[in-house]
Amino acid sequence: MSANLNKHLGTLSKRGPHRVLVGDLDYAGVHGKVYTPAEGEGLPAVAFGHDWIKKVKDYHATLRHLASWGIVVVAPDTETGFFPNHRNLAADMESALQIAAGVKLGAGNITVSAKRLGMVGHGMGGGAAVLASVDNSKVRAVAALYPASTAPSATKAARHLDVPGLVIGSSRTDIFGAGNPAKLAYNWKGKVAYREVDKGTQQGFTEDTLKKLAIGVGAFQGGPTETARGLLTGFLLHQLTSENKYDDFSAPDAEGKKFESLTGEDLAEAAGVTRDD
């Protein structure tokens, strides 16, 4: 019987119990932001990569959400122009994660465990998260939300990524989508969970509503984004804190409301591949 996530997904989709602090990464040499719980020792941490022409402020609620559940987030605000260098964004994410693990945060009462590090990204940043994690022994988990194509190819790089993964894609045809999340998951070398969020899209995940309305690419999708946040939070809490009550969030075939998991031939079909590929 497949695992069912409904028991915890609703709770994890909402704000967590921790008060959140927001600061700058610039002091450490990387332009960006850091989101942390107000206190804690040996905390898990993730580097977060943004989508094309997006900035950290476009993910403010999502990054606060993760921090409210006890996860430190470092988010480079680099490569935000029309012609970003994906390899450089991946390098900035890796540098930011090293900073998080190497210094005391807040007023010195917040520390990160070097054994609890992960990479997370959206769109272009999802691909960069994969690139930053290949052959990186410090990374224990990777999550790519509506990942987009990158150069070098994250889809090809995933064949060498033997780290637990979560890939979130869309159940809808998104004319603005810039990647094939299902194929990225299909290529993943290690254990991976691929979820399609009902009505969720790559463009709908960010919080820059006025900008999106102005250029005609839709609006912020509150419900699907909450679901994606819950799936992401449960996955990270399981992989980076070993909380057994969330282990089903890493199960490839998990079931629940407002999303669908694809495995085997269903995943291959969504990826557009055949047995000969």
TrEMBL record:
Gene3D superfamilies: alpha/beta hydrolase. It comes from Corynebacterium camporealensis. This is Dienelactone hydrolase-like enzyme. It comes from the Bacteria. Transmembrane segments: none annotated. Residues 31-186 form the PET hydrolase/cutinase-like domain. The lineage of its organism: Bacteria, Bacillati, Actinomycetota, Actinomycetes, Mycobacteriales. One of its GO terms (molecular function) is hydrolase activity. InterPro entries: AB_hydrolase_fold (IPR029058), PET_hydrolase/cutinase-like (IPR041127). Keywords: Hydrolase.
